[in-house]
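Bit of a strange request maybe. I'm writing a small parser for structure token strings and I need a real example to test against, not something I typed by hand. Could someone generate the tokens for this chain?
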Amino acid sequence: MVKLHNDWDALLAEEFEKEYYKNLRVFLKEEYRTQKIFPDMHDIFNALKFSPYEKIKAVIVGQDPYINPGEAHGLSFSVKPGAKIPPSLANIFKELKSDVGKETPAHGCLENWAKQGVLLLNNVLTVRAGVSRSHAKKGWEQFTDAILEILDRRETPIVFLLWGKDAQTKCKIIANKNHLLLTAAHPSPLAGGKFFGCKHFSKTNEFLKKNNYEEISW
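Reply from user aminoacidic:
Good idea to test on real output. This should exercise your parser:
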């Protein structure tokens, strides 16, 4: 039984009992037994643990976890303290500096964002070492759809930041006019720099301020 120790436990209780999730759990049990899987099984749900439902102001949707050792820890785009900053995150920091003047941090751990109410949610929450998308289409997409559907029904405003095609498959879920939906190219170098200039960090804080929320200290 998954325990998140906050309001997500009640909100997701039915989801954890559905047949697809039970099948996913069987698959994951075998994968963790026989393969090297990221993140550590105790970190799979860190995004939900760090960001309770009632405190969420923004959601940043990623693809799947980093595939290299010592990086993934359950928060999209974030790496463990001490890990080298990956190229996608380096580009996020470049845009952050250009947009709001934030100097590049010495590390790539985004726990501070999560604790301020930024849900750092990957589309798929686990991956085999060295093999991107290896746990795609096993059930995680349905689970993360359910999380966003729950958030979309919330009346208090949320900013949804969807970067890249994988994340933008979630666009159809965000229908509540109270929310702000922002899309951009993926921050990966493979996107050819199309992420730069999106100004999503300042746009997020402008929206939060307009709705009488405390702005995020990026």
